[in-house]
Amino acid sequence: MADVAAPTELQVTTGPIRGSRKIHVGPLNVAMREIVLDPSCDEPPLRVYDPSGPYTDVNARIDIMAGLPELRRDWIVGRGDVEQVAQREVRPEDNGQLGPDRSGGVQPFPNVRKQVLRAKPGANVSQMHYARRGIVTPEMEYVATRENLGREQLIGHIRDGQDFGASIPDYVTPEFVREEVARGRAIIPNNINHPESEPMAIGRNFLVKINANIGNSAVASDVAKEVDKLVWSIRWGADTVMDLSTGRNIHDTREWILRNSPVPIGTVPIYQALEKVGGIAEDLDWEIFRDTLIEQAEQGVDYFTIHAGVRLPYIPMTAKRVTGIVSRGGSIMAKWCLAHHQESFLYTRFEEICEIMKAYDVAFSLGDGLRPGSIADANDEAQFAELHTLGELTKIAWNHDIQVMIEGPGHVPMHKIKANMDKQLEACGEAPFYTLGPLTTDIAPGYDHITSGIGAAMIGWFGCAMLCYVTPKEHLGLPDRDDVKVGVVTYKLAAHAADLAKGHPAAKMRDDALSRARFEFRWRDQFNLSLDPDTAEQYHDQTLPAEGAKTAHFCSMCGPKFCSMKITAEVREFAAKQNQSADSFLAASILPHSGAAGEVASRSDDGGGLAPTTTPEAEAGMAAMSDIFKQTGSELYIGAAGRERD
Amino acid sequence: MADVAAPTELQVTTGPIRGSRKIHVGPLNVAMREIVLDPSCDEPPLRVYDPSGPYTDVNARIDIMAGLPELRRDWIVGRGDVEQVAQREVRPEDNGQLGPDRSGGVQPFPNVRKQVLRAKPGANVSQMHYARRGIVTPEMEYVATRENLGREQLIGHIRDGQDFGASIPDYVTPEFVREEVARGRAIIPNNINHPESEPMAIGRNFLVKINANIGNSAVASDVAKEVDKLVWSIRWGADTVMDLSTGRNIHDTREWILRNSPVPIGTVPIYQALEKVGGIAEDLDWEIFRDTLIEQAEQGVDYFTIHAGVRLPYIPMTAKRVTGIVSRGGSIMAKWCLAHHQESFLYTRFEEICEIMKAYDVAFSLGDGLRPGSIADANDEAQFAELHTLGELTKIAWNHDIQVMIEGPGHVPMHKIKANMDKQLEACGEAPFYTLGPLTTDIAPGYDHITSGIGAAMIGWFGCAMLCYVTPKEHLGLPDRDDVKVGVVTYKLAAHAADLAKGHPAAKMRDDALSRARFEFRWRDQFNLSLDPDTAEQYHDQTLPAEGAKTAHFCSMCGPKFCSMKITAEVREFAAKQNQSADSFLAASILPHSGAAGEVASRSDDGGGLAPTTTPEAEAGMAAMSDIFKQTGSELYIGAAGRERD
Description:
2 copies of one chain form a homodimer. Chain A is α/β, with parallel strands linked by helices. In chain A, 40% of the residues lie in helices and 10% in strands.
């Protein structure tokens, strides 16, 4: 294993996405992506949200062995509420060097910090704490610029959507970001020990975000692959990444990922804690878990999934389920609770956990350990009992000014999805919801990115703040590089469909730009404006590889004669030549639409011929039209004719 | 081209889907698929709907050169209302041997019928006509048996779903089918000259159906490929197939497809009519179109897409659109209307078209020639003006006892989908709706099976009767074999998600069976119960190829230690050992859920420690539990332990 992590083996994809360039906006140099369009369309470049970090910046120097620049370091230190402390020493068990199956190893990250940051005694360095004291941090300013994108171009734009009670502003100000964070409706996950991350917000009133899961297991994967998956997933749009590594080398794998990640990283600390006790759930205890939280907080993990809602009394509620407890963390804690027949230490020690979180600004992602694992178990007693408890814990965390989001299902049929969103908003005081799909049917393993993409788009529309992706390998195996990309792109399109339906300002700009490109046969622009230009162009070229086809006014679906878009353009051209309004056109046409019903009625009554009755005026108008039409060149292939005979 | 259609080249996929066998049920030998499960689960085989025809029947002899057996021939002739007539002679222009780009050709189907069937003078052979006269046809009986599947096992089963006013019966009787067809709420498309087809129903109160589009264009594809795509698409679940061939050899291609298709075949006759006039829309006229309808009706086409709602007055309404008119048929007719400045002959001759339809029982699929081609154009004036006219035409067709369904969009953001369904039901008197997606965003070419699968699942839930698939190649190129499969499976899962959400009886049986298999680590059953067993197993084997892994109680996602399902099983096993009810368990636990809120409240008020207060009884109960637990073998790996150390 060791050599796979060697520098020469560590390859990641760099360079811009085709047709795009990295730009930096405003005094904080907020990173965005700009899609440059063909000069013929006379449209400005389109700005899109871009979590890919320096890897897509032609001017950035990437060195995986050194890690990314510390963008936020000065902001953090500048606040004067942190102190430097020696990093907790790495122990063998941190990398799971206990128990069976611990062979092999991973080269430690060469550029580990010896000193880490921690809040000064009594201080609280969470963004929520600043927000509640009225402080607008650079992180909040960064988020405001980042979320706005092209919105300033849309002043006075009429909102078209159904937002189910969200409060999406026409324009995002730093003050708006502060308010949302202060009231717990949004979080900015960024551990003070992860200064490499570019600030982003997760909240119902911001763009819908997506998370990609990576991480190795005792059975498959290795560090080099995981770092590559990290860079690959953010290239295609992952807003946060969770390292769900289990088995060996957890600590070192995480270090490689954190030092090279421009997006917030989340983990499930109980996985590593379990490794520290050789995989025996009953041997877990508070001290080992606490030690793991500090270890990971010092490394810079931005949010922890903690299944503190899996309470002893709820466990029997899962006994009659078709798929019982499907959350790994949930089942581990359930096993612990049963073994000791005690309440979960995650629940009883919750305030002590809060003390750790606030010292590094780690956000809670309260885990839904009792989420349904099948359509049959959706919205059951166990699920909602836990949700109720997560609501209670949210309020406790908020009493400590700690940022919180809530994890959600899972497997839910369409008619039960809205109830999940509504109950979460109500039980958790509008804390951001973060769901896994949900899958809308169980019968399509191999296609669960789609069964879940359906549920994800819907719950995103209803108010879910972040969608955890599902790959085609869900339920079947560990996703490879291709699966990660398919999962990310599927969730990006689901999140965007949700933003569109919510009437999110500027969301529609990209759809309209792409549709114009499509209608005007600007094939390259159509590819470049899509979520995956490489695949779009590759699919096009499978049937029309010739470079000339990139400007052809047809595609292989219909062929030259049949392109409806081409014919429409000709229709439009012809209509324009009449330089008349639609009204005068209607006047000249045989019958106004309002008259059609009556006409049809009488027609179907007598069952007679269908020759429409026309007025002399109408007939005159039609004759005139036909003349003009013939003059403009019989078959209307004006301009296009030359092209077509190529 | 000629040789590609030669017998030796005509290869189609035959044999059962893995883990399944073809069965024939009842006196009419209704074809179904049965998935056989592992004996260990002691569950009966699961019956699933199966449109794949004889191709998946090990006992069937397949001869593409001869075509399929004429299942319905005796039923049709037995009604005594048809006569045999000489088939219209094939003319060169039928295969588009006119104008440019007409080189090459296709071998004619060797087993063409010389004699075809037609209604006796004055007779009407449509299923709707029989239904309205109170006649229950064998076709209706076949449909009833086919739709029921496992429903009889569910008597007294409580409906779980939201059907938005549909009238889904617990059990489908032939009389129910007759009523639905009589009132126009369902259609059974089966031309009397396509006796090879197995009757199926399209209607809001039946299972949601899906359509796959195939067909060559002047640019790509050939007959051998199209016949293969036909068989391939129904293998994975396509309920009907549309032959959208353009360019040359349209007539012969269609003959090959019809004679070998067990599912209804739909076409867009205007495509062939246009070929007959060398591709010049303005040269189209009623006589050529009428001749094409008869030609195709005699061949056995089951439903015609006819864009009779594209009226002259509506064309200017498209002038301001971002993507104008995207329907091929719609744009052809718009061009014709503008050129002649006359009302569409499809509209003015509609009753004459009805006379042809009723003589062969061809169903109308009233085309939405003005459907939106982009998010920007969704639900606009042109779209709904046409829908209003389609409603008028539906009533005219119903006056002739002709079966009708209505085509719908297209590109629609999620918040505008329900309005499409509601307006269609209202405008068209609940005639079946048949939509293309809709795509919920424009920005993901290459993934439009997914952007549209989201919209398809939603509108299917709202009441859409049939979903026209979209493949990954949509907007980019002609789908190949793999694209067809991905499109079909995506739409099958969308249709099934819709049936689930509607609370369709028996739909959930398959989800539950698969979830039980998943929970019990019956990997083979999980694969076989899925929509695509081949892909599911292949994905699983990519990380765990060993045959032993097929029975392993874990997968590569989590590895042996972490499998939550395994741990849950152990938790359940342990709980069972206590042989106590959930209630007594709760009594013994530290606090009932009802008390938790208060506890947390007080806790968060004083901000004190979290040690929960317990009663002596509770403590005693816990102690007892722990003892029993330890006796049953410390770490709970009962039974599974041996396996795990393998």
